[in-house]
Amino acid sequence: MSMRLELWSTLSFLRALYYQLNYSAFHNSAERFDPPNCHPETRKAIIKAIGMWVNNQKRTSSIMWLYGPTGAGKSAILQRVAEICNNEKKLCASFFFSRTVAMRNNYTHLFSTIIYQIVLAIPETKPFVVQAIEKDLTLFSQSLEVQIRSLILDPLVHAMSTGAGLSRKLPQLILIDGLDECVNKEGQVAILKAISWLLYQRRVPLCFLIASRPELSIRNTFELPSVKFLTTSLALDDSPNPDKDIEVFLRSCFIDIKQSHTMRPFSELWPSDHAIDTLVRRSSGQFIYASVTSPRNAWM
């Protein structure tokens, strides 16, 4: 009888959570097939800086804000970081906003999607999340703070209190890309305030990597004392050697073009160093300009 009740509880939990999920926002979602990613030989310095922050158990900030203009390569960097941290069992959850995809351009399903991934990454939280949903099936329609407290904070605290040493083994990184692509500016602010509220509790060892353009509403929110206190900011404009990274990327793309057009003879000297230098200069540090040389964008 108890096993049947437990099965019913689990199925009810899965059903309630299923209708609140946005699978397409995962870093490894099939709907994001062939997402933007970094060339293995580029962005090494900035990816290393992010990795050091994630791995620092004594970090003084629990939020890292990676910001830069359109085309600077934010999504590619976060995709690469997500893959690395997932392989190292350090990724707890990810959500990639997209202005042009209906379910990914608002915050309605953000935290429910994160909660689902937390349950997968940290199975010890599952019974406490199930219990919270059983107690109140309207949780997903309540404020972000209520969702976070009932479905993230409390389950994690309970799980850590019952599992010896669990807090030292938890995957800690929650990654949110394209916050500026959440079309509701009030929603952008609400997300940042809810996250800062969670981290202010100092009871869970989570950290958030958030990428966006530096739009006014987002900038102003990161300047609030309650958010600024928790945040390390990383500007892509200040990243070292973007021109060198772009040159490496361009040369790799031209090699791919040569190899994928075997019926068309290319000179060993094509493209010339002068042509590469011109493309690097015109890119002005922005990968979006250089990316048109990629075979992925051959239609352009």
From TrEMBL:
| Keyword Repeat part of the UniProt annotation | yes
Q: Which InterPro entries match?
A: NPHP3-like_N, P-loop_NTPase
Nephrocystin 3-like N-terminal domain location is 52-213
Top-rank lineage group of the source organism: Eukaryota
What is the originating organism of this protein? Crucibulum laeve
The record's keywords, sorted A to Z, are: Repeat
Q: Name the chain's protein.
A: Nephrocystin 3-like N-terminal domain-containing protein
- Please give the Gene3D superfamilies that the UniProt record associates with this protein: P-loop containing nucleotide triphosphate hydrolases
Q: Which PANTHER family match?
A: AMELOGENIN (PTHR10039), NACHT DOMAIN-CONTAINING PROTEIN (PTHR10039:SF5)
